[in-house]
Each structure stands twice: as C-alpha cells, then as structure tokens.
Amino acid sequence: MNVKEKIFEFIDFNLDRFIEETIKIQQISAPTFQEENRANYIKNRLELLGGDKVQIDEVGNVINTYTVDKELPTIMITAHLDTVFSEEVDLGINREENKISGPGLCDNSLGLKGLLVIAEILDEFELKLDYNLMLTATVGEEGRGNLKGMQQLMKRYQDGIDAVIVLEGNGLGRITHQAVGSRRWKVEIEAEGGHSWNDFGNSSAVHTMSRIVSTLADFDLPTDPKTTFNIGKIVGGQAVNAIASEAEMLLEIRSLSKGALAEISQEFKRIIQDICQQDEVKVKFECIGKRPAGELSKEHKLVKLLKRIHQKLNLKSKFKPGSTDGNLPLDLNIPAVTIGLTKAENLHSTEEYIETEPLKAGLEQLILVILEIENYLKNRRQKDE
Prior knowledge:
The protein is of the alpha+beta class and 385 residues long.
C-alpha cells in the first residue's frame, strides 16, 4: 500500500471524527470582525498538530508555515474564519441520515477543518514536501469585512507566493477561477423635510431615493461580461405626516470585468448625483466594500491540475465564478482557485446544511493537491503562466 492509499484509508477511518470537529468549530461564534475566539482555537489545534511556526498576525489571521527552503516555491492554502451570522443566532445542529445542518457549518467551518486535516496528515505521515506551504485562516472575508484578512496576507507575502488555493465548504468539484468583482456603497441623502401639509413642496429624501431606485432599475446592464446590481436595504423618513429629511440605501454592483465594474460604478454615481442635483438635495457616498475582479485561464496548469485530480476521484469539475478570498491574489496576477469540500445547500441561512457522504472525496481531493502540486510549482518559477 503506497502513501496515498494509506492516507485515503486514514481519512475514511477518521471521517466521523473530522465531522465532529467541524461541528465544534461551528459552535464557536465568529461574526465578521469578531473572529478572535475561533482564531485562537484554530491556532491551538495547529500547534497540537505539529505546527511550530503558528502565529496570529496584526489583523487576526492565523498563519502556519512549513518552510522547506526559502528558495523553493510556496503555496498558500487558506480558509476564512468569519460567518455571516451574529452572536445572537442559535447555532444548534440538526442531524439527518446523510445531512447535518447548522448556521455556518459549511461556510466556513468545514473549510477550516480542511486546513486542520492537512496539518494532521502532514504530521501523522511525516510527509516531506519539496515546496514551502502556508496554511492560513483569514478574518473579514464576508460582507463588510471586505477581504480584510487576505488584504493583509497579500500585502505581507505577495512577492513570495506562487499559488493560492482557497477552501470553502460548499461545491464539491468546483473550480472557481473567475473572481466576481464588486463595489458597495452606502448612499445617504439629506433634504429639507418638513410638515407634510404646511411644507408640501419641500424636497423629500424618500421621494428622491425613489426616483433613484426607479432609474437604476431601468438601467441596461451588460450581459457579457455578466454585470449585476442590487439595492439591498433602504431606510428613511420619520413619520407618515413628515416630509423625509434623510434616507439611505445600500447599493452593490458586481461584474466579471474590471472595466465594466469601473464603468458602471461611475455611471451609477453620475445618475444619483444628477437626480440629487435636480431635486436640490445633498448626497454622500461611503464606500463599504471593494473587491477586484480577476480571472485565471481555464487552460492554466493549476486549473488543469485540479481537473485531473477530480477525474481521478470520479468528480465532475464545475466552473463557476465566485467572490472569495481568491479575488485578491488573482488581481495581483497570482494564480488562485477556490475549491469545495462537499455538497451543501442553503448557505448564509440558518437552514444551511452539508452532506456527509461526499466529504471523503472532498478531503481526498485536498491530499492529492498536496501530493501533486509540486511539479506545477516548479514550472511556475521557471515560466509564469
């Protein structure tokens, strides 16, 4: 029995234990900007699994390095710590025959467990790598976190990273090589307001906001590259008999193209400013999120490597764009892909669940990445793809 077969047998034997620790991670509340307790847990576990260079950096990322030789290429494998759920959300677990549900169980407690599985197997089987490896758990991936953790990692390490593999719990067989970029703003409008009868005719922030929403809804967005927008929240006004003096909305634009993202963002801001000028109200834009678009060719050797790995495991490769920590390295021309570990549904809801049976193949996928990426990394240094 070769080492790969021994590791696969080890995964099969310990799968239930791996699932139980995934639940243990999920039970540690980790809203964006409040990931400290979960980060400490991951750090402690990595140290117990043989990590002698584990640290938590200045923004809260957990970093575990396996340095073989500084002259050798380096791969970063990463998973985010935070969830979309507040501390008040009930993190209770429900089990069915082949499903386990619970808020944040898949996204991204399972991704974090993937990091721990890698560390455990490296320690258990004393694997000797011919490249440098970084295992990182990042803060601020979700929502208004704006990829805070990955921004810090790229600022510090970008010149020494040859490839990035992002782990998400969902989407077994996924190869996300296209990064969906986004721009997010809070748009605040200030108007005269007043009494609904006595001051009728004064400018109203709610009326102006309504005109803005209607105009943007009729905007003809490009379909190639795919570009979308969403107004996710609107608040404003004081009472039914008061002309609204204030209103605000949360606006998001997404696109697969950097150029389209910049162009549509500029056009939307112009439309909003023109309407506000016509209505003689004040407008203020606050940027609350900025994620770059980017793309790795489907013919890139890193993508092809993952396709071969999927074929070996009888998995169907699925190419689906996404917005993940991989956006930033792609923007910096560092090859990056996002992969999933099992089948899952209802992400970002309290009914989120994972399927347990496919997880074995998802973890085997990780091991094949560790074992087979060496040749890709050597070629990367010789010739940039």
